[in-house]
Design brief:
There is one protein chain. By secondary structure, this protein is α/β, with parallel strands linked by helices. It contains 21 helices and 14 strands. It has a 6-stranded mixed sheet, with helices on both faces. A 5-stranded mixed sheet has the order 3-2-1-4-5, with helices on both faces. Strand 6 and strand 7 form a beta hairpin. Helix 7 crosses helix 12. The radius of gyration is 25 Å and the shape is globular.
Amino acid sequence: MSVKTFAAIDVGSYETSMKIYELSGKNTMREIDHVSRRLDLGTSTYATGKINPDKLDELCRTLREFSGMMKSYKVDGYKLYGTSAIRETNNTTIVLDQIAQRTGLDMVVLSNSEQRFLDYKSIASKGESFRRIIEEKTAIVDIGGGSIQLSLFDNDTLVSTQNLRLGVLRIQELISQMKVSAAKMEHTVDEMVSAQLAAYKKLYLKEREIQNIIIVDDYISPWAVKRIGKQSEILNASDFDELLNLLRSKSTMESAKALDVAEERVPLVYISAVLTRRIAELMGAVKIWAPGVTLCDGIAYEYGESIKMFREEHDFERDILACAMNISKRYMGSRKRAKTLEEIATTIYDSMKKVHGLGKRERLYLCLAAILHDCGKYISLMNIGETSYDIIMATEIIGLSHREREMVASIVRFNHSDFTYKERVSNRRETDQDTYLTVAKLTAILRLASSLDHSHKQKFKDLKAVLRDNELHLSAETTEDTTLELSYFATKAAFFQEVFSVTPVMKQRKQF
């Protein structure tokens, strides 16, 4: 059995970390080294939009050191990811070029949804413990330096996810600017977060009670893991009360010694503990699990999937689709209509594999576009395409990059409006050719699918699609008048033929 050595590097807002792993079959991932360097990039980025030049120099020195370690381990691959401290700079492209030129390493900046999805995968790497806990009503509370992500699960399915700008470093910087005394810090943090948490509860929790919370962070997780030890996997609210009492009653030096952390980390632990306790109170949760995972674990897990050494034990694609379905529900979308459109569109997609040359990931984009096809009608019935585009771009779908979300939004927009050819675009961001062609192909398929349910009455049953030479033969059972659908089908067929050089032909089968 082959063994791969892999390095995962996380350039975070407070520290830069690298983990070296050995990966083998049967989802086995063994950490063989872990190094981290205290490097506070977030404070300057969140305050000024720029990384301090001295901090950039220090980051490059650290990455060169990591590069030397990777060579000594003879790694088979590596991934270097930047998160919010890099993402929120005003000159990200320049920073990435500097890093590449000075270290020889290529950094990828994760969007917030990509970062949280990898954190989510890091928890999933815990296997049975993860599967068991999300069978109940559970929230993943992912606390970062710049923001926190709240993701709700029910019966092993992602219900919703939302990002709040309540990151630990961001809050610490605001407290520092306000010159808040240590005695008033907890009260000030509570007031800073209460309004956003109250709005979150009203919009997303409503009467839902959460039983479990899973904490992912770099601040209280080390304490929680030590606290849990070998006695139990779960903490409760009283454990956090004890932690907060310790932080309230002792000096920074005493707290650092008691918690076995560096003194400069104590305020961050305090803020994270306050956030966790308040969120637990808000949700009514009594059980708290801190698996002690990091972003690096999620990066390694994803690498194992990409090289086919790991088999997905949790259906992440279903979570992405469930997230889209809940967005559709929020904007009064019809579940029945979305399901019908998704079934028609994927039937056409699957029959055209030899022609479109797209894969599983692009099929997911099509499904998402079918689910979100008319969410914009909630705002405007006259301009559904544009308003749907705006809603999708303004709403995070965990697991999709910004580029992927823009592709889905564009497919939905062009389903309702004239397609914008690349050659006719001016004064807009350049779109690469592969992205442009994927959007065109999926738009053509979604338009054809939409035409077959234009009345929203699901008149066609048991749709079949067969590709013969340069014709796509579609047939379905129906007993209803389909004049409207066939008329729109003929109209939408023109763009489909333009994109694929395939003529769609529709045939009705009588239903007995």
